[in-house]
C-alpha cells in the first residue's frame, strides 16, 4: 500500500491532532488536581501514579492489537492477576522463594498469559466465536482457576503474598528511587509501534480490521493473524503481571476486576478505531496516562471526609470519556465516508475527459 495515499495522510494527521489534544487535557487535569490538593504533585504521589500507570499501559498496548482487528479481549485483567497468582503459588511451595530463584516465576507468568492469549485466538479465529463471548468465557475461566489456586495455597482468606526481594522491585518498579517501569513502557511502546506500522504482522492486522473479507480474498491468512493479535494481548497481560506484582507483592484474587475495562478504555481514548482498521500506539499510552491522572486525582480530592466514593466517581468519569471517544470515532468514520463519496463524481468526470 502506497504511503502517498491522501486518506492515510489524513488519518495520520487526525491521530496526531488527537494526541496533542490528549496531552493538553492531561496537563490541564494535572494542574486542576494540583490546585485542589498540593500533594498531587509530590514526588511520592507521582511515583505511586507511575507504579499504577505501568501495568495498565502495558495491558493497553497488548489489547490495541486485538482492537485493531475489530475484536475485543475482556480476559486480560483476570489473566494478568491469574498469571501472578500462579507464580505466587510456586513461590509459596518453595520452588522459587527466598532462595534466590524467584526469577523462575518470570517465564511462568509470561507463558501463562501467552497460553490464555492463544486460547482466545483459537476460539475467535478457528471456532468462530464472537470475541466478546470467547474472551468473556476465558475471563471467567482464569478467574475460577485463580480462585482455586489461591484457596489451595494461601494461609489467610485475603491474599497471596510474594517473598520480599530487592532485585525484583529494582528491575520492574523502583531502581534506587527512579521509576524504571517508565523505561520498560518506552521500550515496549517502540516495539509495538514498529510491529504495528513497519512489519507484515501489523499491516495484516490492520487490514483485517479494515475489511476482513477483502483481506482474506487478497491472500492474507486471517485466522493466523487474528490468533497472533490475541497471543500478543495475552503475552502483554503476563508482562503487566510482572510490574503489578513488583508494585503490589500482596495479591487479592479480585485485584484484576475492571483492569481490562481500563485498558480498553485507554485504547479507545487514544484514538484506535472501535471497529478496527486503524490504531494509535502513542495514543494508547496517552489514554492510559489520562485515566491514571483522573483516578489518582479523584482519590486525593475525595479522600478527606467525602461521603462520595472516589472509585465510583472514577468509573462514571471514565464512562463519559469512553462514550465521547467512541462518538468521536464514529464522526471521523462518517466524515471519511463522505469524503470518499464526494470524490466519486470527480473521478468519473476525469475518466470521461
Report on the structure:
By secondary structure, this protein is mostly helical. It has helices spanning 6-36, 43-68, 76-92, 105-125, 131-153, 166-172, 181-198, 200-210, 212-217, 222-247, 259-269, 281-301, 310-352, and strands spanning 160-161, 250-251. It has a single domain (44-296), classed as ABC transporter involved in vitamin B12 uptake, BtuC (Orthogonal Bundle). It is built from 13 helices and two strands.
Helix/strand structural class = mainly alpha
Strand content: under 5%
CATH topology: ABC transporter involved in vitamin B12 uptake, BtuC
Count of distinct strands: 2
Query: Helix-strand pattern, N to C?
Result: HHHHHEHHHHHEHHH
Average pLDDT for all residues:
82
Q: What is the count of distinct domains? A: 1
Strand order of the largest sheet: 1-2
Uncertain residue ranges = 1-11, 95-99
Sheet with most strands: 2 strands, antiparallel
The portion of residues assigned to helices is: over 70%
Principal-axes shape call: globular
- Name of the top-level CATH class: Mainly Alpha
Cα distance, first to last residue? 28 Å
How much is the radius of gyration in Å? 22 Å
Count of DSSP-assigned helices: 13
* CATH architecture grouping: Orthogonal Bundle
Task: Give a quick precis of the structure.
This protein has about 350 residues and is mostly helical. About 75% of the residues lie in helices and about 0% in strands. The chain has one domain: Orthogonal Bundle (ABC transporter involved in vitamin B12 uptake, BtuC), CATH 1.10.3470.
Amino acid at each position: 500500500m502506497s504511503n502517498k495515499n491522501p486518506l492515510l495522510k489524513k488519518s495520520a494527521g487526525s491521530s496526531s491532532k488527537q494526541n496533542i489534544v490528549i496531552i493538553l487535557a492531561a496537563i490541564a487535569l494535572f494542574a486542576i488536581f494540583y490546585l485542589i490538593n498540593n500533594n498531587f504533585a509530590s514526588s511520592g504521589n507521582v511515583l505511586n501514579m507511575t507504579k499504577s500507570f505501568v501495568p495498565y499501559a502495558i495491558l493497553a498496548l497488548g489489547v490495541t492489537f486485538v482492537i485493531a482487528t475489530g475484536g475485543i479481549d475482556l480476559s486480560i485483567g483476570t489473566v494478568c492477576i491469574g498469571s501472578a497468582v500462579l507464580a505466587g503459588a510456586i513461590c509459596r511451595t518453595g520452588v522459587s522463594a527466598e532462595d534466590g530463584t524467584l526469577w523462575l516465576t518470570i517465564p511462568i507468568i509470561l507463558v501463562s498469559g501467552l497460553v490464555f492469549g492463544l486460547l482466545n485466538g483459537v476460539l475467535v479465529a478457528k471456532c468462530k466465536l464472537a470475541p466478546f463471548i470467547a474472551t468473556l468465557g476465558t475471563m471467567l475461566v482464569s478467574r475460577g482457576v485463580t480462585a482455586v489456586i489461591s484457596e489451595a495455597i494461601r494461609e489467610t482468606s485475603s491474599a497471596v503474598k510474594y517473598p520480599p526481594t530487592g532485585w525484583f522491585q529494582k528491575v520492574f518498579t523502583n531502581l534506587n528511587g527512579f521509576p524504571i517501569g517508565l523505561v520498560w513502557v518506552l521500550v515496549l511502546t517502540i516495539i509495538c509501534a514498529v510491529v504495528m506500522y513497519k512489519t507484515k504482522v501489523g499491516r495484516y492486522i490492520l487490514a483485517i480490521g479494515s475489511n476482513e473479507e477483502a483481506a482474506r480474498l487478497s491472500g492474507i491468512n486471517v485466522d493466523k493473524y487474528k490468533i497472533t493479535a490475541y497471543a500478543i494481548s495475552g503475552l502483554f497481560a503476563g508482562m503487566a503481571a510482572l510490574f503489578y506484582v513488583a508494585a503490589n507483592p500482596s495479591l487479592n484474587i479480585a485485584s484484576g476486576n475492571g483492569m481490562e475495562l481500563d485498558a480498553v478504555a485507554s485504547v479507545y481514548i487514544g484514538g484506535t478505531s472501535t471497529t478496527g482498521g486503524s490504531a494509535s500506539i502513542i495514543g494508547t499510552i496517552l489514554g492510559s496516562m489520562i485515566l491514571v491522572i483522573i483516578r489518582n486525582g479523584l482519590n486525593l480530592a475525595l479522600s478527606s471526609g467525602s461521603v462520595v466514593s472516589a472509585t465510583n466517581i472514577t468509573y462514571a468519569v471514565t464512562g463519559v470519556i469512553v462514550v465521547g471517544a467512541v462518538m468521536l470515532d464514529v464522526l471521523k468514520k462518517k466524515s471519511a465516508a463522505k469524503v470518499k463519496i464526494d470524490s466519486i463524481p470527480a473521478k468519473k468526470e476525469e475518466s470521461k475527459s
